[in-house]
Design goal:
The complex is a heterodimer.
Chain A lengths: L4 H13 L1 E6 L10 E15 L5 E12 L12 E4 L10 E10 L4 E8 L6
Antiparallel strand pairs in A: 1-2, 1-4, 2-3, 3-6, 4-5, 5-6
Chain B lengths: L13 H15 L8 E3 L13 E13 L9 E15 L3 H20 L2 H5 L14 E10 L1 H4 L5 E15 L10 E5 L15 E5 L4
Parallel strand pairs in B: 1-2
Antiparallel strand pairs in B: 2-3, 3-5, 4-5, 6-7
Classes of the chains: A mainly beta, B alpha+beta.
């Protein structure tokens, strides 16, 4: 018997951990207005190796979305605003979708890059 | 550290003085005016709030004989490799590359056309001018945030420059020849008392 992972697991996970987000479909639907959705936001610490053995402390940040909740799947260069949910304020801000990883079971992991002011 | 702690050629190698000379000149270039952090050691892990960042690190240094290794005092041609790390933040990939390239060109113009860098590169007072003999290799690479994994839109110019200079290591003579004392004893195997003898000292001029 086949298990509907999307209905049994992903929906429950989104109901429990999902945060409201706003998706700006800049490349997936050019010219269309932003829309709201939900996703599971996650940020893991990583160390980036630099020149001469130096290291840079950064994060690998992703947003897991449920494909069946989205009419058009987000793609790279789309932008996403992570909103507040209850008292959780971590990760708030504007991101750009840098990579799209489908899990083959109804979920997609969007790899995010923060949108920051250019420096210099 | 943004402020360089002075070092001396009496206690440190010319290599570190060259590195500090490069970093000190880098800080004065217009391109690096808005940079928050300047580093010369990779010890501390860089943080996002330190960007944009410029660093000059010492990479491996090779010393090969200057002339015949088995004749005379030890003499070396040093080939010191320096790593320039310029880290910027920009979400636009085209602008990222333009900025990294501008950093590269700024370093090339700022260091290679600065005669003082070649003639006396140390940013601190030294006992003698620290001269660069040649720049034998330069390479560069643009690296973009660990192929997309890092959350911060960083991009890094990795530039490696090999600089050569010479040192020689003459022996330290602690028992200098300062005075020669001469006393004659003429004739040989004869009656020396019958001859007026000469006794004198030669004081050798010292440098």
């Amino acid at each position: 018997m086949t298990i509907d992972f999307n209905a049994t697991v992903l929906q429950a996970a989104q109901d429990t951990f999902g945060r409201p987000v706003t998706i700006f479909p800049i490349r997936s639907q050019p010219g269309m207005p932003p829309y709201t959705a939900r996703g599971i936001f996650k940020s893991d610490s990583i160390t980036v190796q630099m020149e001469g053995g130096a290291a840079y402390s950064d994060a690998y940040t992703t947003l897991d979305v449920r494909d069946s909740e989205l009419v058009v799947q987000p793609t790279t260069m789309d932008q996403i605003t992570i909103g507040i949910v209850q008292e959780i304020t971590s990760g708030l801000g504007q991101y750009e979708v840098h990579d799209v990883l489908h899990d083959g079971q109804g979920g997609t992991k969007l790899v995010l890059k923060r949108i920051l002011p250019a420096a210099p | 550290m943004n402020a360089l702690t002075p070092i001396s050629d009496l206690t440190n190698s010319y290599t570190l003085l060259i590195r500090d000379g490069a970093l000190a000149r880098l800080k004065k270039l217009p391109f690096f005016t808005g940079f928050k952090t300047f580093r010369r050691s990779p010890m501390h892990v860089m943080q996002g709030d330190e960007m944009p960042l410029a660093a000059v690190f010492l990479l491996p240094e090779m010393m090969e004989p200057d002339g015949d290794a088995n004749a005379g005092e030890p003499r070396f041609i040093h080939s010191a490799q320096f790593g320039f790390s310029i880290v910027i933040i920009n979400n636009d990939d085209d602008t990222q590359e333009n900025e990294l390239d501008a950093a590269f060109w700024s370093i090339m113009n700022g260091l290679l056309t600065d005669a003082s860098f070649l003639i006396n590169c140390s940013p601190y007072p030294t006992s003698q001018p620290i001269k660069i003999e040649g720049i034998t290799r330069i390479s560069r690479q643009h690296v973009y945030g660990t192929i997309g994994k890092s959350e911060t839109p960083i991009a890094e110019l990795r530039m490696q420059m090999t600089i050569t200079y010479r040192t020689n290591w003459p022996p330290v003579v602690k028992d200098d020849l300062k005075v020669i004392h001469v006393k004659t004893a003429f004739p040989i195997e004869g009656d020396t008392a019958s001859t007026l003898q000469v006794e004198t000292e030669y004081d050798i001029p010292q440098n």
